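Researcher: Re-running this chain for the archive, since the previous output was lost when a drive failed. Same request as before.
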Amino acid sequence: MDIDHLFSGLAVLLSLVGAGLGLRKHDSKKHQAKLEARSELGRRYAQMALTQSASVPADLQMTAALDAFRIIDTSLDGKRDFTESQARVFIDAAIKQ
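Model: Regenerated structure tokens:
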């Protein structure tokens, strides 16, 4: 085997590894962007739910807010994007603001 072939093979291997690492970094950024968008969506749903439940007595406000969150969450596609516990966390955070 010629030394030039060895270096060519090594260069090809290193370029493939570099491309793979680049794709992995891109996927990581894409995943982070999805998480941030989901978090922002949860905060908006919680704010809307609190607005809808504002006229309810204080002892029933959390239940009303969870019901409103559930309705808002399913209104676009008919599926739940957030679990009950996730909704509760977003609503609690919105109440504390």
